[in-house]
Specification:
0% strand; mainly alpha
Length: 85
Amino acid sequence: MITEYVRLEVRRTLRDTGFAIGTIAVPVMMYLLFTNLGGQNAPEWKAASMVGMAAYGALGAALSIGTGVAEDKGSGWLRQLRITP
């Protein structure tokens, strides 16, 4: 039961193009841009940049989840989940 709900929520979240672009595409593009320009070919620089972009994507995802919760509360979906056995 819980796995179906998690699968549904992940699919629903990834269908939101603004969320997917902001948390997946932007950090990947920034990583590729920052590591391929400027002549910084050191592996330490690339690793540090990857960690920074992962943190950027994670923080963006965490901060943008609140709007989805507010929309679910407004539509009555959270109440429906609470009364479901």
